[in-house]
Amino acid sequence: MTRPASGAPHGDSGPSIRPAERADLLAVTRIENESFTQPWPYDAFDRFLGEPGFLIALEGGEVAGYIVADVTRNFGRSLGHVKDIAVHPDHRGAGVGSLLLSRALAVLTAHGADSVKLEVRRSNDGAKRLYRQFGFEPLRFVPDYYGDDEDAIVMIRKLG
């Protein structure tokens, strides 16, 4: 069951969040291709179907954005990992990314993660700003992480 975004009156057509389904993958792949210079292929998203942290935002019945996150065991602890997040260009700036990230953090917490990490391009100021608003702190740089030789910043946040 989906609910309106926080603060949205009942009956409002604000974004709703639900787990991704196979029927969503073409729209997700299109958003990925419009958002990144090195997009994930369709098959990469297909592999994450069924992960509780693969969520989509629906706006007016269409996929407005998505997030892919999971939990893995790391040195005896459960670590959440936000692997990918993007919002369709027509829906950016409307809080869709924040809603997706908020819901994914709740899912990761519910699945036992005590912290969550992500990688972000050094040049992606908008994403870094969003992550800082959610309490993520830079942990380290990874030189040449992306195929076009751009560095990544690994960011981490404690949960719970």
TrEMBL record:
<dbReference type="Pfam" id="PF00583">
    <property type="entry name" value="Acetyltransf_1"/>
</dbReference>
<dbReference type="InterPro" id="IPR050680">
    <property type="entry name" value="YpeA/RimI_acetyltransf"/>
</dbReference>
<dbReference type="GO" id="GO:0008080">
    <property type="term" value="F:N-acetyltransferase activity"/>
</dbReference>
<comment type="similarity">
    <text>Belongs to the acetyltransferase family. RimI subfamily.</text>
</comment>
<keyword id="KW-0689">Ribosomal protein</keyword>
<keyword id="KW-0687">Ribonucleoprotein</keyword>
<keyword id="KW-0808">Transferase</keyword>
<dbReference type="InterPro" id="IPR000182">
    <property type="entry name" value="GNAT_dom"/>
</dbReference>
<keyword id="KW-0963">Cytoplasm</keyword>
<protein>
    <submittedName>
        <fullName>[SSU ribosomal protein S18P]-alanine acetyltransferase</fullName>
    </submittedName>
</protein>
<dbReference type="GO" id="GO:0005840">
    <property type="term" value="C:ribosome"/>
</dbReference>
<keyword id="KW-0012">Acyltransferase</keyword>
<feature type="domain" description="N-acetyltransferase">
    <location>
        <begin position="15"/>
        <end position="160"/>
    </location>
</feature>
<dbReference type="InterPro" id="IPR016181">
    <property type="entry name" value="Acyl_CoA_acyltransferase"/>
</dbReference>
<dbReference type="InterPro" id="IPR006464">
    <property type="entry name" value="AcTrfase_RimI/Ard1"/>
</dbReference>
